[in-house]
Design brief:
With about 210 residues, the protein is an alpha/beta fold. It folds into two domains: about 1-40, no CATH class; about 40-210, 3-Layer(aba) Sandwich (Rossmann fold). The chain has helices at about 20-25, 35-40, 60-70, 80-85, 90-95, 105-115, 115-125, 145-150, 150-155, 160-165, 180-195; strands spanning about 45-50, 50-60, 100, 135, 155-160, 170-175, 195-205. The chain starts with about 20 loop residues before the first helix and ends in a 6-residue tail after the last strand. Bound molecules: zinc ion. Zinc ion (ZN) binds near residues 10, 13, 32, 33 and 36.
């Protein structure tokens, strides 16, 4: 078997991928180099938030932080492909039949970036993320004081409620789980409008939750 004479570049460090492993031949995964792949070790951390089952795929390490920043800050859309590539089928099957709703976004941020990061990360794998949470006031959770975080619910609003009410099983997805106050507010807002089976999936979790 002759390999095609093509050059592949790692999508996260942009270095040429030289070692063609058996794994990459079998799975045609040439997105990231071995070094970056080793940095992308999932933790699959199960936890509860507001009584709901939640799953975090990665720990929020410096590596993940940098990659999410590249995606969100610099608009490097290629980066989005690396996060879920190996787990797409696992995720699809685990949450089969769930209506997926992304974390809150501010309309102005989407205009500025031209895309929404959760949408990018999940849509690449044909996992459709719907938007129903909007920020009434633009805020960054990390900038809020502890007592203000409890009031996040006042800073969010649900849009297009009719479409949510068509579903009974809802999966909330977000990129980073820090204090959980945003997810808690999202759950509360949903429970205010109806009775749903709610689960949570986050790309990464800040370490204090995993220890
Ligand atoms: Zn790399």
């Amino acid at each position: 078997m002759k390999l095609k004479d093509e050059t592949y570049f790692c999508k996260t460090c942009f270095k040429e991928i030289k070692e063609i492993s058996l794994h990459s031949i079998l799975y045609k995964r040439k997105y990231i180099c071995r070094a970056c792949f080793q940095n992308l070790t999932p933790v699959f951390c199960n936890f509860k938030i507001a009584g709901k089952s939640a799953l975090a795929i990665y720990e929020y390490t410096d590596f993940i932080k940098e990659k999410i920043y590249l995606l969100k800050g610099a608009g490097d859309i290629e980066i989005a492909t690396i996060f879920l590539d190996y787990y797409r089928w696992y995720i699809k099957l685990k949450y089969l039949g769930y209506y997926i709703i992304g974390g809150p976004s501010s309309p102005s941020k989407i205009n500025e970036r031209g895309f929404e990061q959760n949408e990018m990360i999940f849509n690449f794998f044909n996992i459709k993320v719907h938007h129903h949470f909007e920020k009434v006031i633009d805020f960054k959770q990390s900038d809020l004081k502890k007592e203000e975080r409890n009031k996040i619910i006042d800073k969010l609003k649900l849009v297009d409620i009719e479409n949510i009410l068509r579903h009974r099983k809802i999966l909330l997805v977000d990129d980073i789980f820090t204090t959980g106050s945003t997810i808690q507010a999202m759950i509360k807002l949903l429970e205010n409008i109806g009775k749903f089976k709610i689960k949570v999936l986050v790309l990464s979790i800040v370490k204090k939750h995993t220890t």
